[in-house]
Write a structure and sequence with these properties.
Helices cover 74% and strands 0% of the residues. The chain is an all-alpha fold. It has a domain of 104 residues.
């Protein structure tokens, strides 16, 4: 096999992979924009209530977690910063939300991509979510609870 054959194989394989990912990501981004425009994200946050209550995150922390779960860390962090600047989140909430999202973020995108490569997506999704809940629960129990400490607009 010549270098030209190797180069052609590498380029065609790469372009095929990028095309397959684009077939998944582009419709997903359109779907995400529709969810945002219809303000469905806030309605979906009620699903997280049992988990956020268990971990000790305030109800105001549900929206940033849901945004991070669905849209990814970038969008979730934008909502975290906005909520923190408005004084809706404590430093403890911010820490626990970030910890949760580091472990479990962009579940919609990642799950579709995992399924596209042929892996069993449901066990991966469940392990990520419950691992995030368990770790946040443990950290929340070890973390001191400040008295009415609200975040400042120092972000």
């Amino acid at each position: 096999m010549s270098y030209l054959d190797i180069f052609i194989e590498a380029v065609s394989g790469s372009l095929t992979g990028v095309f397959q990912i684009a077939l998944i990501v582009i419709p997903l981004m359109v779907f995400i924009e529709i969810i945002q425009d219809l303000n469905l994200l806030e309605k979906l946050t009620a699903i997280l209530a049992p988990f956020t209550n268990l971990v000790g995150i305030s109800p105001e922390g549900r929206l940033p977690i849901m945004a991070g779960l669905i849209f990814g860390i970038s969008y979730g962090s934008g909502i975290i910063i906005n909520s923190a600047r408005q004084g809706k989140l404590t430093y403890r909430d911010i820490y626990l939300i970030n910890l949760f999202l580091v472990i479990c973020h962009a579940v919609l995108e990642d799950t579709i991509l995992i399924a596209a490569i042929g892996a069993k997506w449901f066990p991966v999704l469940m392990v990520r979510f419950f691992l995030a809940v368990i770790i946040c629960y443990v950290v929340a129990r070890l973390m001191p609870v400040p008295l009415a400490e609200k975040s400042e607009s120092s972000l």
